[in-house]
Amino acid sequence: MRNRFQMQLEELNNDLISMGALCEKAIHDAVKALLDSDEKLIDRIHDTEKEIDRKEREIEGLCMKLLLQQQPVARDLRTISSALKMITDMERIGDQADDIAELVRFCRLDDSECRKDISAMSKAVIEMVKGSIDAFVRKDIESAKAVIDSDDIVDDLFIKIKCDIIRVTAVDTNAGENAIDIVMTAKYLERIGDHATNIAEWVEYSLTGSHE
To answer: pTM for this one?
Structure first.
């Protein structure tokens, strides 16, 4: 019975890795579409978001099966309950990437400073998502803490973008609508960073029983 339980936990790990990879893909494609003004990628991002939703339901079903059939206790119970919380944040990451895709038709970054900062934000949040999932699979609390600390980088970039936009609109009043789209894009990326931080905090809980 224990061997079967361990196999199912391994399946859970693999499914979370797959869902995390889909989230990374969605973020990457959404920002690439924005930077390249590539509307052809929008449908692909929508499809990835739907795959993330399907994966969430699949993992949720596996977790419920583990809870009902195996009746885990202590650390194993925390692992499964944490996974259920994590997939909710991962599903929201997919939604946020999809929201960025919706702005591709309207938002133009050109060669502005914001373009560099949006690109840097996307790379940072992708690393945070990847790092949080890896920390769960490897049961690595230090990696989880590193993800939590990385959120400051994303927050700082978001603040910088807002300040840059204020300066741009002060000079060019016609830039207002595009400026709003840029700030919305940055806000979606900032929220993705928050969700990755949530995942890392659930990793910490699964390992220590403490959740801040």
So the answer is: 0.93
